[in-house]
Amino acid sequence: MQVKRKILVLQTADSDVDLRTSLAAGGWEFQWVGDIDAALAAAAVSECTVGLVVLDHPDAFEQIELARLIGGTRIEWIAIMTKEAARRHDVAALLANGFHDFHTFPLDIERLLVVLGHASGKAALKRILMASEPAFRGRYGMVGRSPAMLELYRTIDKMVRVDAPVLVSGESGTGKEVVARAIHSHSARRRGPFVPVNCGALPTSLVQSELFGHEKGAFTGAHQRKQGSIEAAAGGTIFLDEIGDLPLESQASLLRFLQEKTIVRVGSTQTLRIDARVIAASHVDLAAAVRQGRFREDLFYRLNVLHLDLPPLRNRAGDIALLADDVFDTYGTLKAPCVRGFTSEARVAMEIHSWPGNVRELINRVQKAMIMSEGRLITPRDLGLDAHRGAGANAVSLQHARRTTERDLIVAALERNRHNMAATARELGVSRVTLYRRIQKLAIARSGAIPPDSEPGA
Predict the structure, then answer these.
(1) Is the torsion defined by CA of 430, 436, 442, 443 positive or negative?
(2) Is 284 helix (H, G, I), strand (E, B) or coil?
(3) 289 & 213 share domain
(4) How far is CA 216 from CA 26, 163, 232, 265, in A?
(5) Quick one: 101 and 83 in the same domain?
């Protein structure tokens, strides 16, 4: 027995169109609703993948409400309307950007049934693609499965088991606070507070007070005792972002805390013992700052017990599309009603862009495009990117991007397998002959390689 396909029909109560009789022989099972809110609610819980909207009179539904409908569901919508309505500019724009197809009265039932079948098939393909996509998108609240991110996850795995200070380095926008929160929330201190402090935003005259607190009357304006950020982080973690901007006086006080786990509030002589883990971050080279006399060498070594260097987005082959889709899903309430995703040109433009602002720039561009795009799919222009060159000064071709991606994947696999060619070939799903050929073509150095005759199965 053939299972009937399900279709959602949005039709006002005062409509004169009798679709129940017309489509009875089409092998469809219908669910009828009379307003936009009911359609949205039904789409959220039903198995319908195709929908019909009946617009047989001018005031059937407002355009803004229809836009809310098609933007809030994953159904393939088909409109049935008068010829006069189809000629209106606002209706035509909505049809072009939001609907799978449309039909005008009088209805050609045979043609409509064919289109319903096509729409159902397209919806089924979408579901297959969604189901077959690898489930792994990332870890620790981060999105990414590139070799660089897999290595980052492995490093965090080790850091969450211990309680030593961590120094996080990386370009602006790479997600240093996200990583710090991940380490805290998966460590033994997860039940304690996480206190972030942007050292670069603190006025020099208030750094000591903000970090270590002060007593009442310690200085002009100190009308009451204040708890500092380190004290507030007791039992948890304090995250010191842009640590390189701390003045030397405060660096000395922070060093004392790291060595002795004690602080003294400004204006006090009482020593307070505080149990807090320190995670610091900087986008500048602290080792260079030490050489230049702008950062204490002893503090640098105290902070740099464990070190994380976050990869820039341009080095995270394969993660850009994942991140863009995650932003699109996470901030879905921001998007224009008709926006459903990205064009293939937009995805290519994102892949070849150099992303000087890293993940923060990607989030900004995608959010802006979601709000401002007037089409169903976001284009390179919506993202402020060139479809062929990207927006960065060092734009690369798609062929070069693919070559770089392949090279990064092979290098990472070689390192994971200690340059064992047989094991690397198995991991990558290719023959050893193919792997040798790709290594030679991509000019990959095999330092520390295991000779072929000593490899398993050789």
Answers:
(1) positive
(2) coil
(3) yes
(4) 81, 33, 17, 10
(5) yes
